[in-house]
Amino acid sequence: MPIGTIHWIPQRSSKIGKKFVLTAGRLRVLILIFALLMTGLSALFFQVGKMNSRFQSASKRYDEITIVRGELYQLSERIMNLRSQFEEIVTREEQILVAGAGLNLDFSELLPRDVPMNEPPSDNMFRYIDDMEMEIMLMERLADAELMAYDSLAGYLMGKESELAHIPSIWPVDGIFVSDFGPRIDPFTGAVRIHKGIDLACVAGTPIYAPADGKVVFAGWTRGWGLNIVIRHSERVSTRYAHCSAACTVVGQEVDRGDLIARVGTTGRSVAPHLHYEVLIDGVQVDPEDYIIREGSDSAIF
Is the pTM of this model over 0.85? Predict the structure, then answer.
């Protein structure tokens, strides 16, 4: 049974108009089509939203993984820096033990030999984390050993302030290290000779400071060393400063660590201004670097 009629009237008179008779059956079909269309559109929008949400979630997860990798790499860099600091601590502690207690101990075996990864982690981040945990564990072991060593050293050094003040433990001059202790090629003859001190190149006139308390026992000229000064710090320990341009002390003078004692020159057997510095134990030259713990005239550890 018809419930209405829809007329279509064209704008041009040359075309014939049409009419559409709307019945109850046709109306139900149109409503059903519209409902199906809306349902389909709703399902489509839902799927698009769900896919977009998944994409955003995956993108966020990827960003988080990238951030975690960056944090792991930064943590690895911090571990590497910590390792370097421990190596410096070990070196200085060995010097302190030699200079302060006469103990020649080697702590290098306590340092972990496997260096952690220095490149950003790949997909196997758990392996990367395991490597860092192992490195941290070894560092903790070294830290415990260092604390025990420091406690032992502190117990030994208690009450020895006067003795320590007479141990040469700083650089006597601000210069450039050019020659170490031991065999070297003689600059004059070209032959291999034992160099019984260290050479520090400086501008002529650079101040030379006493590395420890002591008494000047020699200030004068010697053929090879030129103008040189010898300070006796204890019954066993003395130091020599050669090739000076001027002496700022005299024989018998008491000096404290950091006092000006001479100035750099190029007297004697020398090719350029520098300080030849020696540490003598019972009159025998030893490597001065074993007794140099801090830089500068006012930076002694003791």
Answer: no
